[in-house]
Amino acid sequence: MVRMLLVGPPGAGKGTQAARLGEIYGIPAISTGDIFRANVRDETPLGVEAKRFMDRGEYVPDSLTNALVADRLTHDDCADGFLLDGYPRTLDQVRALDEMLNAQGESLDVVVELLADPDVVVERIKLRGAEQGRSDDSEEVVRNRLEVYRRETSPLVEVYGGRDLLVSVDGLGTIPAVTDRIVAALTARGFGA
Ligand code: AMP
User: Ligand 1 centroid to 33 CA: how many Å?
Assistant: First the structure.
């Protein structure tokens, strides 16, 4: 049982690692980006609204994002832990998540920060854009996403560090090597797979 989140710049490999860690720890990997993209694909009202922000590399408003996560965390599969990938991303979302968990008498166990060099992530994302056709992976939008990350999300590292929840892991290297590094860091904190 572990309640954790992954934080790191776009292109650091959060999605890939989240899926692998979810398997290893037997918990659902919940990606707000994936949920938004599914809604965009299905042209739901949430998707239509979210797309306006996503296409520009901006964050979807906190009110929409918080409501989505609050609902998702009530699903049965979250009873024995979860891994949030790409949420929270703002200080308002940090507060909202704290409240959601407090209301259930729960709290976060650990926050994994994936470290990545900005130049490397821009190159990775451009490759992903070519392969997967993500509309927010063009160079201009990527640069904006990195800037939004620096401005809105990087302060979270300090917040969680102050709570002694932070584990920072080098996100460079092969996919399995990074997974191994994260698992080793989590094991050292007492969270066995
Ligand atoms: P991701 O797949 O995590 O890179 O997310 C893709 C896009 O979805 C982001 O650039 C945002 O526009 C939106 N998004 C995902 N998660 C959040 C969040 N926690 N808060 C606001 N917007 C988000």
Answer: 5
User: Is 59 close to ligand 1, i.e. is its CB under 6 Å away?
Assistant: yes
From first to last of the 193 residues of the chain, give the pLDDT tens digit: 899 999 999 989 999 999 999 999 999 999 999 999 999 999 999 999 999 999 999 999 999 999 999 999 999 999 999 999 999 999 999 999 999 999 999 999 999 999 998 788 888 888 887 888 777 888 888 889 999 999 999 999 999 999 999 999 999 999 999 999 999 999 999 998 8
**CA atoms within 13 Å, Cβ hemisphere of 119:** 0
pTM for the whole structure: 0.94
Which stretches within 77-169 are classed as H helix? Answer: 91-103, 118-132, 139-148, 155-162
- In this structure, the residue with its CA closest to atom 12 of ligand 1 is 54
Question: Looking at residue 104, what DSSP letter applies?
Answer: T
- Residue 36: inside a domain: yes
Evaluate whether residue 141 is within a structural domain.
Answer: no
Tell me the residue range of the domain where 23 lies.
2-116+165-188
Ligand 1 within 6 A of CB of 149: no
Report the atom number in ligand 1 closest to the C-alpha of 57.
Answer: 10
Quote the number of domains for the chain. 1
